[in-house]
Design a protein that fits this description.
1 helix, 152 residues, single chain, mainly alpha
Length: 152
């Protein structure tokens, strides 16, 4: 009988142990579930806050859309004004470049004309000197002829 009693006691102990283990396991599961639920609540709260911020941002964007459109229009007008100014400056620069080009061309032409005139003047001067030399030679010849005629 001792054996059967001992067996009963062991069975009872095993049942108690199993129940204790089951209760501990259940407590852990319950604790994990509570933690997960709190985590989900926190996550939902974060998502709700995020949605609220997005809604607020959307409202703010809608409120500022008109101001943004006006600013965009101002920027476009300013861009067009600057573009026109740039074209105007470009045209002025091109005009000045063309003017400078014409002036350079004119100066070169003038310089060439001056060089031609100088060459002509030099040639004329040389021609004049040549004529003077020729004249002197002729005069000397005449003098020699006169002397020769006078000597005879």
């Amino acid at each position: 009988m001792k054996r059967s009693e001992q067996r009963k006691i062991e069975l009872e102990r095993d049942r108690v142990r199993a129940r204790v283990v089951q209760e501990r396991y259940q407590k852990k599961i319950d604790e994990r579930n509570r933690v997960e639920e709190k985590q989900q609540q926190r996550q939902h709260k974060i998502e709700d806050e995020k949605r609220q911020r997005q809604i607020q941002l959307l409202h703010k964007e809608q409120e500022t859309e008109k101001a943004r459109q006006e600013r965009l229009l101002e920027l476009q007008e300013e861009h067009e004004r600057k573009e026109q100014e740039r074209h105007k400056q470009k045209a002025q620069i091109k005009e000045r470049f063309e003017q400078a080009k014409k002036e350079r061309h004119q100066k070169m032409k003038q310089h060439e004309e001056q060089m031609e005139q100088w060459k002509l003047q030099k040639w004329l001067t040389m021609e004049e000197k040549q004529q003077q030399v020729e004249q002197r030679r002729l005069e000397k010849l005449d003098q020699i002829r006169e002397r020769a005629t006078a000597v005879r």
